[in-house]
Amino acid sequence: MALAAGVVLAVHWTTFFQAIQSSSVAIGTITFSAFPLFLTFLEPLIFHEPLRPRSLVSALVLLLGVGITVPAFSLENQITLGILWGLVSALAYAVLSLANRYLSRRYQARTVCLYEQATAAVVLLPVLLFTQVQWTARNFAGIAAIGLVCTAIAHSLYVAAQRHVKAQTAGIISGMETVYGILFAFLFLGEVPGP
Fold it and tell me: Distance of CA 16 to CAs 33, 56, 88, 138, Å?
């Protein structure tokens, strides 16, 4: 199951970065952070738990939040395209969160993450054959920071937390990533989010 989750992680990574490249860091992180919306409906279905009215209200608020970011209902609009990629990323991450909830009760978080991230890396490795990469010190440092700090460490902590809380609860708390992402995009990339 961890290998299948690794394939889902590869889909999540790809669609998340596509959302950012199609639109902006703000749109990519806002739409990705809507993954608890999908968890609201998938978690009770998978784990045979009741759907809580409070969770349903939270999901509707998330949906409204994503809805107000849509500038035009047209695939010609880059922001709309970024939102769609972000929602696919959110769905993939919701599925991954459910797999992690299941796996974290049976295995150590670092073991789960090792299998998932190694599988995702192997799945994505062939992309290097078709992509021109400039291996500068700055690019290498950026990839190392994203890989170690933002992925390996953060993902391991998130999986470990799911041993003790529901996937939706962990998802809502991790939604703060959006705030940090938008702030760092402003500071380091000069991206100023619109209204």
Answer: 10, 25, 8, 22
Amino acid at 70: V
Q: What is the pTM of this model?
A: 0.78
Residue 84 in 3-state DSSP? helix
What is the spatial distance between Cα 104 and Cα 159, in angstroms, rounded to a whole number?
Answer: 6
Q: Kindly tell me if the per-residue pLDDT of 147 is higher than 90.
A: no
Q: Which residues have CB under 8 Å from 158's CB, separation 6+?
A: 100, 170, 174
Asked whether the predicted pLDDT for residue 7 surpasses 90, the reply is yes
Are the C-beta atoms of residues 19 and 28 closer than 8 Å to each other?
Answer: yes
Could you tell me if 162 and 116 are in contact, meaning their C-beta atoms sit under 8 angstroms apart?
no
Provide CB contacts within 8 A for 150, sequence distance 6+: none
Cα 93-99-105 angle, rounded to 5 deg: 135
**Looking at this protein, which amino acid is placed at residue 157?**
L
Which among 49, 35, 129 is positioned nearest to 88, based on CA atoms?
A: 35
pLDDT band with cut points at 50, 70 and 90 for residue 126: very high
Cα(13)–Cα(16) distance, integer angstroms: 5
